[in-house]
Structure formats: structure tokens, C-alpha cells
Amino acid sequence: MLIIFYCVILSLLSSVRCVKVFTQKPAILTEQKGRSVTMDCNIEKDERNSVSWYKQIPNAAPQYVLRYYHSNSDPYYGDGFSSSRFTSKAPSNIDYQLIISNVDVTDSAVYYCKTYDDTAKELRRFLFG
């Protein structure tokens, strides 16, 4: 796993904020139309909180897919995403999964998971194949 640290100075009066960016291998995950795909996110530290999932297509802002609380079995969904196709689970306190059922070409995107402390992880580019 490649870990890159970026530090951004927001202004002279604010403090420096560092964000960890992770990339998992393989970078591209391909699946056939109508099948299911599972993407894994390891948050590395047991926060016992939640993970949010985002979908980003080229030249567009990220879309909020869902938030999954480790202690709650029902995700909270963003606009346009529903439990009929998108769900999440946590096999452990640090491992979370986004599961997309009945995949379609419109699901092709980069998917991110994010913990409450603003740690974001680029998971995989999902391509319809």
C-alpha cells in the first residue's frame, strides 16, 4: 500500500493540516453487468465509529453513497442511492465493505471510503466490463 502525506496550509492564520491518502492494489476492479462487486476498506485503526463511501466519476464532484456505523446494521444513504443495490458491512472493527449488486455501466467510477477523522482512502476504480 502506498501512503502519501500531503500538508496543506489553509492560510497564514490557520494551522497546518495533514491528510493521509491511501491507495490499494489492484487499482482497477472490473465486473460484468448484473453481477455484484465488493470493495474493501481497511481504516487501520479501531475507531468504533463509521465509514462513509463516495463515488466520483471523471470531471464531477464526489457523490455521497452511504455511511455505515459499525454498531448499526442499517446504512444511511445519500440521494440517488438505495439499499436495493448498495449496502455495506464491517467484518471487523477496522475492515469495512461496500457491496454493489446488479452492477451497471453507470457504476463505473472511483470509490472512496472516509472515516470521521477525515482519513480518506481511494479504493478502486470500478469499470464496467
List the topology elements.
Blueprint: E1 2-9, E2 16-23, E3 28-31, E4 37-42, E5 50-56, E6 63-69, E7 76-77, E8 86-89, E9 95-100, E10 109-115, E11 120-128
Parallel strand pairs: 2-11, 3-11
Antiparallel strand pairs: 1-2, 4-9, 5-6, 5-10, 6-7, 8-9, 10-11
Task: Describe the fold and architecture.
It holds the Pfam family V-set. InterPro entries: Ig-like_dom, Ig-like_dom_sf, Ig-like_fold, Ig_sub, Ig_V-set, TRG_var/const_region. This protein has strands spanning 2-9, 16-23, 28-31, 37-42, 50-56, 63-69, 76-77, 86-89, 95-100, 109-115, 120-128. It is an all-beta fold and 129 residues long. The protein has a single domain, classed as Immunoglobulins (Immunoglobulin-like, Sandwich). Strand 5 (50-56) and strand 6 (63-69) form a beta hairpin. The two termini are 25 Å apart.
Assigned CATH class: Mainly Beta
- For the record, what is the CATH homologous superfamily label? Immunoglobulins
Backbone structural class: mainly beta
Shape: globular
Pfam families: V-set
Signal peptide: 1-18
Keywords: Immunoglobulin domain, Membrane, Receptor, Signal, Transmembrane, Transmembrane helix
Main location: membrane
TL;DR of this structure?
The chain is mainly beta.
Overview features:
eight-stranded mixed beta sheet, three-stranded antiparallel beta sheet, Immunoglobulin-like, 129 residues, single chain, mainly beta
